[in-house]
Amino acid sequence: VKVRFPPPGVSARPFATPAEVVERALRVPSSLRAFGVDAEKALRVCGVDASLLEELLDLGLPSRGAGARRTFDGIDLANVAVHLGLPSLQHHVMDGWGRTLATVSRGPSARYVLEYRARCERCLPRTSGSYRFLVPPGRHVTTQGGRPHRVPVERPTSWPPFPAPAADVSAHMERYWFWGLPAPINLDIGFVRANRLAGCRMAAPLVEEECTARGLDVRVRYGLMLVVPFAGAHLWNELRVDETWVAFDPFLMQILHRHTGLDPRTWPATRSPGAILASLGTGRVLPITIHNGHESRPSITTKLVADGEPAPIGDKAT
Ligand SMILES: [Zn+2]
């Protein structure tokens, strides 16, 4: 099934010009490119049409082969899609982040039911043996026979304000562009600082360093971004405000401003997105789903519980 993005009613926004995007893409060493995407997939997944591909090539975007056999790097094209505001899978996903945050924050608290699904991408049948899930606020649950595990999560929607230096950290992070990077430079804080390109994985240690330098009490948290329809792994920071640790993620807020149109007047970078963040009890990246002893990609659906509905009951943990 070919899926077209975005769905009706969703508008993507351009943030940069093709020349600016190619200039940044060229900061990534070419030896790290995979060149696995042809023109058909570039259009279908990333919204890059033939004339834009020509323009990007003229500007120096790396490719391999020629004519109909020419291929591009998928990470390059995903970055193109995000920064040129193309109707793409990338934009569709990010739009869900902003929409969920704005939606859940209308109520006094945000209530979710997460369903961890037995969907190992490597095994058939997927239902064989056991799944071990890491669920908020940081415990392990094992299911057998392909059974999913449901867990209710409730998050506050209003938070105490951050100390003043947090605004300086937000301003500092505006120098960075949200940028998919290949391994190993995706975890190379030296590359990230020198080139001002970062994904979520490196934004958290960057923000931590900047907060520490300003005397803020900060820590890194690993957990789930609770987004409809799918929750995903995320790293963010928390600042201690009096006795409360409050989620602080100026880079995420900036991404939502730049690329999804979340209004910075109601959602400044110093407003906590804690309503959509659920810690897994750690500051380290850990496997969220383990199938028969091997790590597999998490498949977690997110449903919102409306105001007035009774508190959802999760599956019994084992
Ligand atoms: Zn498996």
Structure description:
The chain has 318 residues and is an alpha+beta fold. 29% of the residues lie in helices and 23% in strands. It contains 9 helices and 13 strands. It has helices at 18-25, 39-46, 50-58, 74-84, 89-104, 165-173, 189-195, 200-213, 250-260; strands at 109-116, 130-135, 139-144, 149-156, 177-178, 197-198, 218-225, 230-241, 244-248, 277-282, 289-291, 294-296, 300-304. The strands form 3 sheets. Strands 1, 4, 7, 8, 9, 10 and 13 form a 7-stranded antiparallel β-sheet that branches. Strands 3-2-11-12 form a 4-stranded antiparallel β-sheet, with no helix packed on it. Strand 2 and strand 3 form a beta hairpin. Helix 5 (89-104) crosses helix 9 (250-260). It is globular. The protein starts with 17 loop residues before the first helix and ends in a 14-residue tail after the last strand. Residues 1-10 have low confidence and may be disordered. The structure holds zinc ion. Zinc ion binds at residues 120, 122-123, 291-292, 294, 296.
